Amino acid sequence: MIQKLANSMFLGNSILNYLIVVLMVFTGFLGIKIIEYVIFKRLRKWAEKTAATFDDFIIEIIKKIGVPLAYFGVFYLGMNVLTLNPLLRKIINIVATSILTLTAVRFGIALISYGFEVYLSKKEKNEALKRSIDGILVVVKVVIWGLAIVFFLDNLGFKISAVIAGLGIGGVAVALAAQAVLGDLFSYFAILFDHPFEIGDFIITGDYLGTVEHIGVKTTRIRSLSGEQLIFSNTDLTNSRVRNYKRMEQRRVVFKLGVTYQTTSEKAKAIPGIIKDIIKNVKDTVFDRAHFFSYGDFALIFEIVYYVEGSDYNKYMDIQQKINFAIKERFETEGIEFAYPTQTLYITKAST
C-alpha cells in the first residue's frame, strides 16, 4: 500500500520524488542553519580579536548575501530533481537568474562601499570629502545596476547587441559633445583622490589667489582676499601650477634694511649679531642668516633671512612687525641710523 502510494504520480512526478525533494530541502535548510549558528558564532569571536575590519566585512557579507543565496540554492537543486512544466521551469530559471544578478549587484556595491569606507577611515574627518564619496558611490551604483540589467535581459534571450551598439555610437556622440564636461569630471576625480588641495586651503594659481570654498563635479570655487568668488573649471586647475600655502610647514622670510654711510665700521659689524639676537628671542622663528649685503646708492644694505613656523599669514605679519619694532628700538639705543634717499651737493667757488 505504501509502495503503491509512493509510486503514484502527481503533476508528472511520483509522490516519492516529492518526498525526496522535501527531505533534500529540509536537510539543506537544517545544515545551513547549523552552519550559521555554530560556524558563524566562532567566526565572530575570531573577528573580534583582530584589529582588521575586512574579516568583519566578509562575515557580514556572508550573513546578508551568502546565507539567503544558499537557501535558494538548496531550493533550486530540489526543484531540478522534479519533472516540471516547461513554463514553470522557465519561471524558476528566471527567478534564479534575477536572484543571482541581484546577489552580484549587492556584493559589488557592498565591496565598493567598503573600499570607500576604508579610504575615508585613513583620512581626517572631512564632511566635504564624505559628500564627494557619496556622490561617486551613486554614480557607481547606477553603472552597476545598468550592467546588471543588461546581463539579466541578455540571459532572458533579448537581442540587446543592437541596443548596445546603438548606445555605443550614441555614447561616442555624447562624449564628443560633452568633452569639456567629461574632462572636468575626470579632473574632479583627480582632485578628489590625489588631494592637491582641499576645502579651506589657501592656494595661488596664476594671478589668482584665495581660499577654496567648494570642489564640485565641474567647477571649483575660491574666495579671493578682496571678497569676490572666483570660479575655475576643474581642468584649468589640474592643468595649472597650484601653490598650496595651507600645507606650508615653514615660511621663509627675506628682508633688507639700510643704514647710513656715516655708520662706523664697528657698529656695522655689530648689526648682524644684533638682528640675530632679536630674531632668536621671537617665538616660532628660526634664524638663518644676516649679512652686509651690498653698498647701495645711499645706504649700506643688510640682508636678513629667517623662517616662521607654520603657514598662517597673519602670524607671519605679527612676527615681522615685532622684529621691525625691536630692530628700531635697538638701533636707537645703539645710535645706528636708518638710511633714506639723500643727495649731497658740493659747491666750489670758481677762482677769478
Note the topology.
Elements: H1 2-7, E1 9-10, E2 13-14, H2 15-49, H3 54-81, H4 86-121, H5 127-155, H6 161-177, H7 179-194, E3 202-205, E4 208-215, E5 219-224, E6 229-233, H8 234-238, E7 242-244, E8 250-259, H9 265-280, E9 285-295, E10 300-309, H10 313-334
Antiparallel strand pairs: 1-2, 3-4, 3-7, 4-5, 5-6, 8-10, 9-10
How many domains? 3
Secondary structure tally: strands: 10
The rounded Rg comes to 39 Å
Structural class: alpha+beta
**Helix segment count?**
10
Q: What string gives the helices and strands in order?
A: HEEHHHHHHEEEEHEEHEEH
Strand adjacency order, main sheet: 6-5-4-3-7
Tell me the strand percentage band.
15-25%
Helix content: 55-70%
Low-confidence stretches: none
Task: Indicate the multimeric state.
Answer: single chain
